[in-house]
Amino acid sequence: MTYALRKLGMLLLTLWAAVTLNFFLPRLMPGSPADAAIAKLSQNGPVSAATRAAIEAQLGVPGGNLLEQYVHYLQQVVTLDFGVSFTFYPEKVSDLVLTALPYTVVLVGIVTVLAFVIGTLIGVLAAWKRGTWMDTLPTLGGSFLSAFPYFWIALLLLFFAGYVGHLFPTSGASSPTAVPEFSLSFIGDLIYHAALPALTILITSLGGWILGMRNAMINTLGDDYVTFAEANGLRGRTVALKYAARNAILPNLTGFGLALGGVVGGSILVEQVYGYPGIGYLLYNAVVNQDYPLMQALFLMITVSVLIANFLVDILYGVLDPRTRR
Amino acid sequence: MKKFPRRSRLLSLVAITIATGLALTGCNIHIESKPDPTIPQDTLLLAADQGSPMYQRNFNPFMANRRIGAAYIYEPLVIVNDVNGDVTPWLAQKVSQPDASTVMFTLRDGVKWSDGKPLTAKDVEFTFNMLKTSPTLDLQGIWQYISTVETGTEEGNQTVTVHLKSADVPAANIIAQTLIVPEHVWKDVKDPGTFTDDNPVGTGPFELGNYSPQQYTMNRNETYWQKDKVTVKHLILPATNGQLAMVTQGYDWGYMYMSDVEKTWGGANKYNRFWFPPGGVISLQPNLTKAPFNNPDVRQGIALALDRKQIADAATEGSMQPATQAGILLPNQQADLDPSIPNGGVITQDVEAAKAAFARAGYHEQDGKLVDASGTQLSFSLLTANGYTDWLRAASQVQRQLSALGIDVKLTQPQPPAYQLALRNGDFDIAMGAYGGLGSQYQDLNGLLNSSNFRPVGQEAPSNFERYQNPAVDEILAKYRTSLDPNETRELGYQLQHAMITDLPVISLYYGGSWGLYSENKYVGWPDADHPYASLKTYTPTALLIFTSLTPRDQTEDKK
């Protein structure tokens, strides 16, 4: 019990540190939101002084000294009210986040789970059949694929499967004319549009799971209890899954917890390449436009989910592995 | 165990071959435009609006992040052609200036809002007054000129008379370009400053059709006051349209920079056209409060040392030309140019003359470096914004060409917001910057040169970032502001051009383009170099000039 309480205390402390950093970091960036808006406008032509004044007034550039802003910000964090976005003025930050969140959570979430399950299973197989082609192919392919920058894979897929092959749509999360409803055709449309981004993330993240699992598994395969199980004449599959894999999965499970926490952050580059309306794209827009309210809300969400995922993994570890409880 | 390494070597070989193959074929694939066959002939596909990546529904025409479609729904009193400054009366059939501080707009008869109500002088008055009470929407700053607004009638026509705070003739066009909104809809809006105008009611040629966060359509306004001139029946505006989409998906009109435009856009379809008239002047803006840039000889030396053709080619892949030093855009504003200025005011590279100018400023060459009397090398940092790749290419050229003379140039490229901040605070040696392109010589140069926009270094300047102060130029601008005589303003324009050339407050390099792409597949009558009646910008009221000029292309020739 003290173990869980200690972890909870750590969680709260880290949370406060993260929240505070989250406030100060964006403000260290030079220039103001109005500067960012003007910079965008002035690419099309000169911007008059009057326009600048109007834009500053529109964005309601934060007043007061840093301390006042900080206190105000803490109130916002507690009440989960992040005000109005600068970039998408006059949209509310909470509305923007709630619109983008489902896309990211479903796309990145499902793919992360898939990649973990498939990758881990392949890793088990590779370790069990080590030395055969069933080991060489996934191990080599895994390290090969995970070495690719994933935006590059994204661009390749986009170009060949989208523009040249016309197999998949090139951007968006659904057809422009599709009506959001709970129907087979709309869900099909969503899956069709998510195919390329999903494939990109799957291809590039699979390798890590395979290698991690394989290496941990090879270690456990050398342990005495595995040899003992084999000597007892247990079936191969039983030994592989129930004895070796079960013990080897701990490090991968930690990674999985962290990856799940990171899901909320989306996949900035992939969403950017495919124009996918998720959190990653929103975050990119917020940073580029110095949209403090939006940035704060998004960073906070990401930090909190990573911290909570970490906390849960810690607790889970305590249950799975009695040694950590000490 | 021996066979595994060999096998893995084989595998990597295969993989590398595949990857190289992909990369190589990628370079050679020719992309063709595949227009969507479900889009009918009377419908234009526009790359005009950009969601990020989805649209927010906001058609309030006075907001910086409105939907672009608002420009096809709401109309101004007059439209100024941003290419050459020509004025077309629009909702006002006539604009008169009885004296330099009064503007009278005579409204057009028979203009209706899309809900059937007639446009009245009260709507115009209401719009102006609303911009006063909601100053955040006054993007053009019309209330820095206006004193009062009154409505009246003249010969049976409704009029709106605007009294200015002081004599200011050029202000008339700024005020006249205000988009007019209907009083009967907007008067009930509690806070126009946050109003998103979801269901816009305007006088323009199009009405909002189907809206979704990824695309909206617009339909022709069947009660439009010049409906007979509008033959386009529908518009489609998708939220995502990058260069690749523009080329492959059969767009009819877009406004974006396109690399290697003749091969990419032009090569994709035989009806694809482009027109890149100058849209602004990209220049070196020296900080005139700092030595040695406050020395005209140093500016002269830098100006003469540069090969503008090379800079323009590097920056724009050959699309744009070297710019005149006269402070205007050529050939757009050829009519305004003083004919006595040689070579149209374009400074050509003359290294010997540049060295002579530097010598006058007290610099000489020593061990391949240009040094002053104390032996210190002439050295400065050149500020440009990160991500503006054309500017960066130009800046690198400037760096290369000046270092050939022994000048040390360092490039600094902060993120755009930080670049803006540095520019406004005067926190730079020499900055890359754009000016011009409003179509009006006075407006372009007043912002650039008027000392009323001067602020000391460390204070934010509204414009005039190079911090130029010249009482003689201020006087020319003041006269220009109060003159109703076109002959006099032409003469004053000449004087401004000479000031730009002799004083070099900024050093013009090349023209920034106005990147118009269009297709003659469905419609003809687009503006081009021979018919410069508008630029191809999709987001300004000049789009209305284009919509009222397009006619369907004769499709019978396809069947031959």
Short description:
Chain A: Belongs to the binding-protein-dependent transport system permease family. Chain A has 326 residues and is mainly alpha-helical. Chain A is built from 14 helices and no strands.
Helix and strand element order of chain A: HHHHHHHHHHHHHH
- Give the helix proportion of chain A (percent range): over 70%
User: What is the rounded distance between the termini of chain B?
Assistant: 71 Å
Largest sheet of chain A: none
Number of domains of chain B: 3
Low-confidence stretches of chain B: 1-15, 21-28
Looking at CATH, the homologous superfamily of the largest domain in chain B is Dipeptide-binding Protein, Domain 3
Q: Give the averaged pLDDT of chain A, no decimals.
A: 82
What oligomeric assembly is this protein in? heterodimer
- The end-to-end span of chain A amounts to 11 Å
CATH architecture of the largest domain in chain B: Roll
Helix content of chain B: 25-40%
Q: Please describe the biggest sheet of chain B, giving its number of strands, its sense, and whether it closes into a barrel.
A: 7 strands, mixed
Q: Which CATH C-level class of the largest domain in chain B is it? A: Alpha Beta
Number of contiguous helices of chain B:
16
Main location (chain B): membrane
InterPro entries (chain B): Peptide/Ni-bd (IPR030678), SBP_5 (IPR039424), SBP_5_CS (IPR023765), SBP_5_dom (IPR000914)
Subcellular location (chain B): Cell membrane
GO molecular function, one term (chain B): peptide transmembrane transporter activity
